[in-house]
Amino acid sequence: DIQMTQSPSTLSASVGDRVTITCRASQSISDWLAWYQQKPGKAPKLLIYKASRLESGVPSRFSGSGSGTEFTLTISSLQPDDFATYYCQQYNSYLVSFGGGTKVEIK
Amino acid sequence: EVQLLESGGDLVQPGGSLRLSCAASGFIFSSYAMTWVRQAPGKGLEWVSGISDTGASTYYSDSVKGRFTISRDNSKNTLYLQMNSLRAADTAVYYCAKGVAFDVWGQGTMVIVSS
How far apart are CA B53 and CA B74, in angstroms? Predict the structure, then answer.
């Protein structure tokens, strides 16, 4: 099975900061990676798919990059609505797996 | 509007069974793989099971293999998860999701396994 490791697990940042979250796969997954945002009590929301493709309706301050085993999610200028938990997910294998999550908190 | 609506969550005793349903609307259900994802209280997302568009192929995490069965009825636009031999560790919100990069999620249904 493919293991996904996210870092950091928690991130403290201020409005306007540039934020980067990293996700590493235990083996190559090409670019079969998605990023989700989840707020408390809500279902996750797809932000990025195929490593770098922005889901329709998602603000352009979100971007994704990477291939193989190393991936990043970048928020170019953190907004108040962005304080949430973020998850990466690989779908290279039929046995899908998620990263452990990164909680973005207000500094 | 594209929508997924889960139902069937409940309080059940250890060793018991439960069937979850996920009603789909607003898209061609039979054209998409579907998935169940769960989230234990205060924890991260855990993939549970997936099924191909036709239902011919099914996939399970090691934690539920042999106990849970995923199925679908494309004539009813509905996804199911039959859960048997439930354990306390299965306590979670269960979400259904569309596709392989999950662009549509339901609101979730709570399953509590406790005596």
Answer: 9
Write down the residue that tokens 């235990």 correspond to: A26
Cβ contacts of B102 on chain A, cutoff 8 Å: 34, 36, 44, 46, 89
Query: What's the gap in Å between the CA of B115 and the closest CA on chain A?
Result: 25
Of A46, A50, A98, the CB nearest to B46: A98
Residue A94 has pLDDT above 90, yes or no: no
Per-residue pLDDT tens over the stretch A18-68: 999 999 999 999 999 999 999 999 999 999 999 999 999 999 999 999 999
Contacts of B82 (CB under 8 A, 6+ apart): B17, B19, B68, B69, B70, B71
In chain A, % of residues over pLDDT 90:
95
Laid out side by side, the sheet with A4-7 consists of A4-7, A19-25, A70-75, A62-67
Cβ-nearest to B108 among A43, A96, A99: A43
